[in-house]
Amino acid sequence: MELADHTRDPDRGWDERQALAHWAGICGPTAMDQYLHEFIKREVALRPDSEYRDWQRTLCRLIESAANYGMPMERLGLNSFAEMLRQSRNAEEGLLALHMACGSLTKAVIEIQWRSSTTFGAWFKRLQGQRAGPENTLAHSCLEYLNLAGCVLDFMDLFAARLNGADLRGASLEGAILWNAQCHETNLLGANLVGANLRDADLSKADLSKADLREANFSGADFLYANLADADLARAHGLEQAKNLDKTRNLDPEVLDEVKKAMVPRPKRD
């Protein structure tokens, strides 16, 4: 509301920096956990359609400002740099969490103008921190319906990340860890996934057309109704262990024949 007022009249409401400072004051002190996130998703779902659509557009503006220029933590009067960093991270993760709650309802991808192709990756790495085992931060679960087209995410840790419906057209994910990632209906048109680890990933209804999938690992990945038109699968690994490869769209028949041949047990030697 405040941002919308400011857009209509610069003398009223808040700009993005003022809105982020207010957001940080509310969401910075305590990190959001999965239970609170589930509660928020239920509450958002109770709101009118027009309301959470407006929220998603506003959140994309705030995410864009936070990632491109940082959070305005100096406005909060915190007593240490470490506390500024901690609360900034909590607030930024909260932006992703609420965006995901809205996006999962609208199924819409809103434009975000990243400052450079590496801006999102650098920002997200700060939010995810160093893992200690397989458990993910909340941020990994909140990447659905984000506009990440053209982003450079090479060798990114996206283990078990939720990327359903995200726009990754032309993105570079070379060597990325997408093991067990959820990529249902994700747009990966023309993406670079050379050497990526997609073991057990859900690629159902994903658009992988014209994607560079050379040397990627697809063991256990689910390709149900995925679009593989003109995708380069040269030297891809684990296709014989992939699921529903025969139910993809536009897969080169020669590739499928080669996979089927690899699945035929070789006769035992005496």
From TrEMBL:
One of the Pfam families matching this protein, by short name: Pentapeptide
Name used for this protein in its record: Pentapeptide repeat-containing protein
InterPro entries reported for this sequence: 5peptide_repeat, Pentapeptide-BTB/POZ_domain
Protein species of origin: Candidatus Kentrum sp. TUN
Coiled coil: none
Family annotation (SUPFAM superfamilies): Pentapeptide repeat-like
